[in-house]
Write a structure and sequence with these properties.
The chain is mainly beta. It starts with a helix and ends in a 35-residue tail after the last strand. The relative contact order is 0.12.
């Protein structure tokens, strides 16, 4: 099993991107490679593989990745298809959707926590409700059960 140190060490290898602390991105980031963000992003971040959010980083948008290790601040929903690790200094204002979740003591999450096999797909588009239509769970994938750790 990979430890946080192993995940962190692997985040800066070949074929990975790095957004330094001095950089501000105004817009979304989409990458087919894993990476690390130490700067500020005002938009969604979508990556394949591991995404590391450094302690000085701020992301104001939704985050989509296979794996996530965060030490910084995220203001948006998180959709992780495998494992999310929320460190003891992380701050998240949004929902966390992940298959596996590790939250360190001291982390702050202001939002719902969901265990979802379809976390990678992100939220389903909202549909106009018919007057007699059954009530559906918002953002729940169709024909798939959303589980809880509790």
């Amino acid at each position: 099993m990979n430890t946080i140190t192993d995940l962190f060490r692997n985040a800066l290898g070949k074929g990975r991107f790095l957004l330094p602390r001095q950089v501000v991105v105004q817009g979304s980031i989409e990458a087919t490679i894993p990476g690390r963000i130490d700067g500020n992003v005002k938009g969604d971040v979508k990556t394949e593989g591991l995404l590391v959010i450094g302690p000085q980083a701020n992301v104001k948008g939704n985050v989509y990745a296979t794996d996530l290790v965060t030490y910084g601040k995220i203001y948006g929903d998180i959709y992780i298809s495998n494992k999310a690790v929320i460190s003891n200094v992380a701050y998240i204002k949004g929902d966390v959707n992940a298959l596996i979740l590790e939250v360190k003591e001291g982390a702050v999450i202001e939002g719902a926590i969901r265990k979802s096999l379809a976390a990678r797909r992100g939220p389903e588009p909202e549909k106009a409700e018919e007057p007699d239509a059954p009530v559906a769970v918002k953002n729940a994938p169709p024909d798939e059960e959303v589980a809880s750790w509790f």
